[in-house]
Design a protein that fits this description.
The complex is a heterodimer of chains A (449) and B (611).
Chain A lengths: L9 E4 L9 E6 L3 H8 E3 L13 E8 L5 E11 L10 E6 L3 H13 L3 E2 L4 H8 L5 H25 L2 H26 L11 H26 L1 E7 L5 H9 L17 E7 L2 E7 L12 H12 L3 E7 L6 H9 L5 E6 L15 E2 L8 H13 L12 H17 L4 H19 L4 H12 L5
Parallel strand pairs in A: 1-7, 8-10, 8-11, 11-12, 12-13
Antiparallel strand pairs in A: 1-2, 2-6, 3-4, 4-5, 5-6, 9-10
Chain B lengths: L4 E4 L3 H12 L4 E5 L13 E3 L3 H11 L3 H7 L1 E7 L9 E6 L1 H14 L3 E5 L2 E7 L2 E7 L4 E3 L2 E4 L8 E4 L2 E4 L11 H7 L4 E8 L2 E3 L9 E3 L21 E5 L2 H9 L22 H7 L7 E6 L6 E5 L7 H8 L10 E3 L2 E8 L16 E3 L9 H19 L13 H12 L23 H12 L4 H23 L1 E2 L2 E2 H5 L6 H8 L8 H12 L1 H18 L16 H10 L4 H5 L6 H28 L1
Parallel strand pairs in B: 1-2, 1-10, 2-6, 10-21
Antiparallel strand pairs in B: 3-5, 4-5, 7-8, 8-9, 11-12, 11-20, 13-20, 14-18, 14-19, 15-16, 16-17, 17-18, 22-23
Helix pairs in contact in B: 1-9, 2-9, 2-11, 11-12, 12-15
Classes of the chains: A alpha/beta (449), B alpha+beta (611).
Amino acid sequence: MPLPPTGDTIAAVATAPGTGAVGIVRVSGPAAYAVADRLFRPHRGPPPSRRRAGRVVFGSIVDARHQDELVDEALLLTFRAPHSYTGQDVVEFQTHGGPAVLRSVLDLCLHAGARMAGPGEYTLRAFLGGRIDLAQAESVLALVEAQSDGARRNAALGLSRALGERLDAIQSDLTEAYAALQAGLDYPEEGVPEAELDVPLARALERVEALLATAEAGRIGVHGARLALLGRPNAGKSSLLNALLGFERSIVSDVPGTTRDYLEAPLALDGVPLTAIDTAGIRSADDAVEASGVALAERIADASDLCLLLVDRSRPLDPEVQGLRTRLSAARTLVVASKADLPAAWDEAELDAVAVSAHSGEGLEALRAAIRRRLLGDAAASELWISNQRHAEALVSVRHHLQDARGAPPDLASLELQDALEALGRITGRTEVAEETLAAIFASFCVGK
Amino acid sequence: MQFDVIVVGGGHAGIEASVAAARLGARTALVLPNPDKIGVMPCNPAIGGPGKSQLVYEIVALGGVMGRLADDTAIHARTLNASKGPAVQSLRVQNERDGYATAARGLIEATDGVSIVRAEVASLTVEDGRVAGVETADGRSLRAPSVVLCTGTFLAGVVWYGKQQRPAGRQGEPPARHLSASLRATGHAMMRFKTGTPPRIRSDSVDFGVLQEVPADDPPRSFTGRPGPRVTESPTWITRTTPETHALIAANLEASAMYGGDIEGRGPRYCPSIEDKVVRFADRDHHLLFVEPDGVDTSEVYLQGFSSSMPPILQDDMIRTLPGFERAVIQRYAYAVEYDALDPTHLAVTLMSRRLPGLFSAGQINGTSGYEEAAAQGLVAGVNAARHAAGQELVTLRRDQGYLGVLLDDLVRWGIDEPYRMLTSRNEYRLLHRQDNAAERLTAVGHAWGLVDAATVAEVEASAGRVGREVERLGRVRQGADTGAKMLCRPGADHASVTAVVGGPEEALSRDEIERVETLVRYASYIERTRRHLEGRVEFEGMSLSEVDYGRVASLSAEGREVLLRHVPLTLGAAQRLRGVRDSDVTALLVHLKTREGASTRAVSRETSAG
């Protein structure tokens, strides 16, 4: 298997999955600054490439393809060759968004010209760039060895049969499309029918999307999810948390320290590991709904996979609570109408809320089911979990090449398909694209003199 | 008789090898039984096509002769894939079959330093583990430090018509009976391959009126920039098989040498016989066939797509089921040929044998198929044979430099199990390795090899300069918010329509140059992406493994070490492409190289400070 090139620009998520509230996407290579210019808009001052290196810049990550639509607020760290970890130009986007946001940022980097980094590529570059000394070389070796062994094991054992079948289906769609395209290009006169790409590409894209949709569930299934409880101090957050914890009440603990002014409690919901974050202990802003507390609430929400916004159903609806609700991501927020055992002051259907009483236990099961559905989606029922972050990233790369292949002229479409197959090969371990294509050409088309 | 280089065989590989060696100053013998057979085209009378035309353009750039011969004798030229993007556009010319051979022989005879020796070579002369010359079947000794084998399909060749077989290297010509033994005795493994040809039909028995005509391009393109005098004079034609053809073949399959199980050799997937096509694609009600003339006023046409190993009597009936061929008379029957080929993994990427220094081989003997693939190898083998004789370091082309590099790398790295034909899909850098920029890519290499003069290099550089300046200008000039480059990228725009708005360049550009400008502007982002991808790889291509003792490299896997010892790759780039070499092996080699580099630097600096 060839080593990856080291002269181009690569990008990858640099934080481990399921940990920490800050996510990093790192880009290394000659086009790092071009990538940064394309997707990062500093709040003040010139674009990244015209700034001095080694500074932290605050700004927005935007999607330039869609009128600079906001993706996330982020910090940008810049390094110039050779003063970086890899010895190349490096930029780092630090966001507090969850994994879905990180993948969008990564996707934007790929659209801006970077290539998805493979296992150990940053370390390899660091080594070749002379940023790691000879004493460290041995450990680099061990690392790469371990990774490639891991990759082999993965290819042999790591993929469940069901996932393997899905990937094979994508691979054969792409190989077939690529072979059809290539047969037409290599045998232009022999009546090879015009390669019909729209259907196989659309089907492959659909399959890739479906697998990626399970990536979130897969990650949560393996690494757990963060569940935030927001609401006014008297909305019943602590009671709800205790009700959800049930017998596990004893493991509630106060997380001490100055940086985490809230309660974290591990919680298992039908086998899905969760970390519940109760903002009850926020000292700087007792009331998350007050203006001063809104920013903090939003930050906590952003760093969580799901927010429970608790609203007391026994009291009239509060316009400020409504305001907070509109500012939170609808997809990641579940409104809970609390104190359902008391007479209702409003109808929970108004807010599309789940009515729950921590006191009587009414609605708790419905809430558990709703949380599970929100976190795991349809994947809850299946085992098609892309739990491996690298697999998810490779699929993002495949999707990116397939999107670019649609409507491209034949020679360019074939380049994109070649890259898509290569990216897929990183999951399946099938990397001999050329030979498989030739086999497909000669099996499917009657060409040759 | 003493020579510097002996070339065995006068086909397309042998022509390039002997001319290149002689032009580099080597006293060269071209040995073959019949000089009238120099440059014959035993398959179809055409040069070029996808993957192959790129090779011919590269041969021209490097100082080879195939492009010149093909252009001078062309009677039809067409650009294939014209609308499918520059990476795959390919020129294909039809040639006057006899004219090509005459021109080739004329060229050999006019080349100073080539002596034609009429003989069959019987064995290699080996002294001190090196090649020292050849013995001919009639007992003569020819001596030279370099021998280039370009024997095509002649090594132990057997020709089949139906179930009848006879030893022959080609229709009506005796095979090379003895040389295979000599190669085996010097440690070379041989493979048994097969290929086939279609029948030749008398022109006056074909009803051309009912055939679909394919006209030549006008104005024509050419490999050398100077199209030959008759290049637009002939069309080609298309006919097709019919259900009657298929029924006839299906009913008589057991009469076929290939289906009857008589032929053992492996045939190429891309060159199926008509029997293969009918069996494997039973749902098709027709297959296209190409009717190619042997010349402008030819008495014979070639029926491309109709290779067969059926007995002659059946071929007559089969032909007459084709539209336009109802009364056709076969002049020469289709036949299959089986032959010995060397396992190319015995070769270094210079085409010199790793088993026997001084022995080179090129063309079908190395398991390839096609005139262009043969000529490309012949050129490299000829250059290196001359250099070896002169005690100079051997040269090669890397994979990232073009199709020729891909061909060499594929052959010696992977080995092959069927005849190897070049296809654009074999080249991962095809967007960079276009026929339009072959001169720009490789003329300087041809100059360094000694086959291209300084004036040509200057011409190519001047042209590249004009193209570069125009691309740069288009990126600069504006109409409103848009640059000329941006306008050129719009659908339907071309250089003329853009310059009509933003003004033309100061210097005049040729038609080819304008097309190169359009390609470079339209495909800029893709070209850039491929180029960066390639540059990353080139780094490894430059890391020499020549002094590495694999036994002393820590952490190599057992399989990796074995593969490396067997193949002896020259560079880390070549090593990483070997099957069985893992990522971790490449990293181990890298660490080894860097460590050694570090150690020697430290040693030098210690000496300096001590002094």
